[in-house]
Amino acid sequence: MSNVAERTNATEIDAVVIGSGFAGLYSVHKLRNEMGLSVQGLDNAGGVGGTWYWNRYPGARSDTEVNVYCYFFDRDLYESWEWSERYPRHTEIRAYLNHVADRYDLRRSYQFNTQVESAVWDEESSRWIISTDRGQTFAARFLIEAVGLLSATNVPEFKGQESFKGQIYHTARWPHEDVDLSGKRVAVIGTGSSGIQVISELAPVVDHLTVFQRTPQWVVPSKHRPIDPELTKRIHDDYEGYHHSVIHSTTSFGFDESQISAESVSEDERHKRFEEVYNDGGGFQYMFRAFNDVGTSMVANKAATDVIEKKIRETVKDPALAEKLIPSEIYARRPLCCDNYYESFNRDNVTLVDVKETPITEFTENGVKVGDTEYEVDVIVLATGFDAVSGNQLRIHHEGRDGLELRDKWKERTKSYLGMTINGFPNLFMVYGPMGPFTNQPPVHEFQINWIADAIKYTLESGAATIEPTAEAENQWMVTCDEGAAATLFPKVNSWINGANVPGKPVVNYFFMGGMDAYAAITDADKASNFSEHFRIERKEPAAV
User: Could you tell me where the beta strands, DSSP code E, fall in 355-496?
Assistant: First the structure.
């Protein structure tokens, strides 16, 4: 037993991985199966899936096309797994992740139903001392946090909430047993990505659906259908080339991103092109495939919303209701797509309540009160989203060098280098952490984990004890990220992208908006330099395991 084990009564391990979603599973596979390290995976869920372990609400499905919402590291896995739809339901995504866990024997390295409570850096041994709610302690040389961008639930508290006699569910913590809402009076609070899906799914099923809308959304149809066989063939014919094109693109969504500026064509041509993409379906495609400047040009942005506004007015039969569903904001939130969303409001059993104009005052025994009006319901669904990007990291107590607490370091705003490393927190790596690229996640997860694995490999092979970014590198990265974000339209709208959905959270930029291709070039340069330019490499040998 080493000194650190004697002092802390800890189980010693090369690496602890927190999370068992796309990022966590691949982290365990990469570090254990490919690098031969001893790895302990931990997750507070009862099984594999990450966000998808919890996301079981009616209508829950991916809004990223599945040809890029999957793993690429094993071609046989990619080609042997058959998806039923371009935007699969939560059950199918969970089945896929469970298949991956079984295929690569990953479960034996995981402990589920386990909450990581603290991660404290031990300077003497150069290890992270990680404590769980089970009273366990692990001493890990490396800590990989694959805790999820959209995993920490945002649960608002309403006056009188405890008095409501019916059931209250949150979309991100939906019960695992069947919930039969047929014939029930249901309230949905929230109209973000989860909200629009649950509204569209429940409207034909429930007795009455009351939608409490604070912020209208720009929504385009998904056009659910099987995967295009021609696309599948093209990928199979040039698998490596396709994967390369996904990584070396702006968004990593796997479609052909436009190289044309909306400002370079006539207004009629703009509207015609947006109509074409709208009719093909897909929120991210609508923002990034029609033209290349929807996120940066007010001209392009206005043309995009003109078409959606026209579709809303054509779809919603009541002109006054259509007016309430049309956003006053520009198109600079997470792009949303869902079939039959606006059509739901033509149903006699669906009521829209504007709670921005008149906020919810309280929950009562029988329902939800807005101003002086009470809406009686049997079930309340909170579709209020997530404490995104930094939420799950901050729910764990972190202490880095010299007792520096992560919550204190991030009090004014989150800071990192590359969205993967933090100055003052050696040997700690985040997958898709704050200040990472604003892209599709699973392929970028793989890219980042491969980079993390290379950083760990270099640390081990060079005989170094620790690796961490310098303060200068971190500060410059923040400047780079902020300058990039300022060149876009996203800061002009308050959303989870800038933390505005959580009371008290700093409303700032949380992303690198320069595109995945540029991000890959920066991270590849660090790797090519043996991490010499932007990292502090401590050469002392840590205490023996």
Answer: 360-363, 367-370, 373-376, 379-382, 397-399, 428-430, 436-437, 466-469
Alpha-carbon distance of 190 to 199, in angstroms, equals 10
Do the beta carbons of residue 49 and residue 92 sit within 8 Å? Answer: no
Cα 260 to Cα 131, 256, 290, 488, distances in angstroms: 52, 12, 8, 17
pLDDT value of position 541 = 54
- Per-residue pLDDT tens digits for 452-509: 999 999 999 999 999 999 999 999 999 999 999 999 999 999 998 999 888 889 999 9
SS3 label, residue 200: helix
Strand 428-430 versus strand 466-469 pairing type: unpaired
pLDDT at 283 over 90: no
19: left (phi over 0), alpha (psi -120 to 50) or beta: left
The 3-state secondary structure of 457-518 reads HHHHHCCCCEEEECHHHHHHHHHHHHHHHHCCCHHHCCCHHHCCCCCCCCCCCCEECCCHHH
Measured between alpha carbons, how far is 287 from 262 in angstroms, rounded to an integer?
12
d(CA 56, CA 177): 10
Task: Tell me the Ramachandran region of residue 379: left when phi exceeds 0, alpha when psi lies from -120 to 50, beta otherwise.
Answer: beta
Task: Tell me the torsion sign for CA atoms 156, 159, 162, 168.
Answer: negative
Q: What is the DSSP letter of 262?
A: G
In order of their start, the domains of the chain are 3-152+387-538 (3.50.50.60), 155-205+353-385 (3.50.50.60), 219-352 (no CATH)
pLDDT of 335-369, one tens digit each?
999 999 999 999 999 999 999 989 999 999 999 99
User: String of b and e for 207-236 (b: at least 16 CB within 10 Å)?
Assistant: ebbbbbbbbbbbbbbbebeebeeeeeeebe
Q: Which two tokens stand for residue 542?
A: 């840590």
Q: What's the CA gap between 101 and 52, in Å, rounded?
A: 14
Q: What's the rounded Cα separation, in Å, for the pair 99 and 363?
A: 42
d(CA 464, CA 444): 27
